[in-house]
Amino acid sequence: MCAMTPLQQFIDDHPRLFVLTGAGCSTDSGIPDYRDRDGQWKRPPPVNYAAFMHEPATRQRYWARSLVGWRRFGRALPNATHRALVALERRGQVELLVTQNVDRLHQHAGSERVLDLHGRLDEVRCMGCEARLGRHAFQQMLEERNPAWMSLDAGDAPDGDADLEGHDFAQFEVPPCPHCGGILKPDVVFFGEAVPRERVEAAARAWQAADAVLVVGSSLMVYSGYRFVDAAARAGKPIAAVTLGRTRADALLSLKVDAPCDSSLAFLHQP
């Protein structure tokens, strides 16, 4: 019988885990991540909340790129990492899985104890009347108003974006809310926008109730996720991270596995 790896031992020793996931969970599903092994941006940072809300040109650029990027993002499927975390939940070891991703692939894989910290890209929200509509329905609205853009293709960027540099977005038509005419925004937390308090409080209750923290596929460079790891470390909770490259919390970790998520967690699929 093979000896346990340090990660297997960590999970075996801590029956109630607070799991925090990031973009590295979804790269095998064809969704690019934001950062390199050193935690630095691979491309310009994502759209800023204030710019999106106050600059029509920023909304035109965002939704034009999203029209192209959504065609593949919306068809992404869960991968082995998502399925391994489902297996961990079915063992009864997941207090809560908090994901910084907005792709809903954990839920599509079968995870039930999931909190979407940064929201979900498959819904669009009106910033005026709070009406919501599905992203697929909004895709149809975008395509009906901008038929010339439907023939464009571009490289995938993170979170349903596409690299459409060099295009003129001035004529791109962004549909208003069909209910009140307000600004429509993906139901995700943009940079410069606060995570809703109830999500932060739910995550805090979960790490406090857990025996340990397991980070999967995140550099933790964004404070919204790092805060939970930092707080758990100060409370004396053991923390393990499975991710490629440097994390913001390296000094806080009890165990670091610098390796691909899928192979590192493959043992969870075993009986």
Highlighted features:
six-stranded parallel sheet, alpha/beta, three-stranded antiparallel sheet, 271 residues, 9 helices
Tell me what you see in this structure.
The chain starts with 5 loop residues before the first helix and ends in a 7-residue tail after the last helix. The mean pLDDT is 90. Strand 2, helix 5 (105-109) and strand 3 (114-116) form a beta-alpha-beta unit. It has a six-stranded parallel sheet, sandwiched between helices. Strands 5-4-8 form a three-stranded antiparallel sheet. It has helices at 6-13, 49-54, 56-73, 80-90, 105-109, 135-145, 197-209, 223-234, 261-264; strands at residues 17-21, 94-99, 114-116, 119-126, 132-134, 156-157, 161-162, 184-188, 212-216, 239-242, 255-257. It is 32% helix and 17% strand. By secondary structure, the protein is of the alpha/beta class.
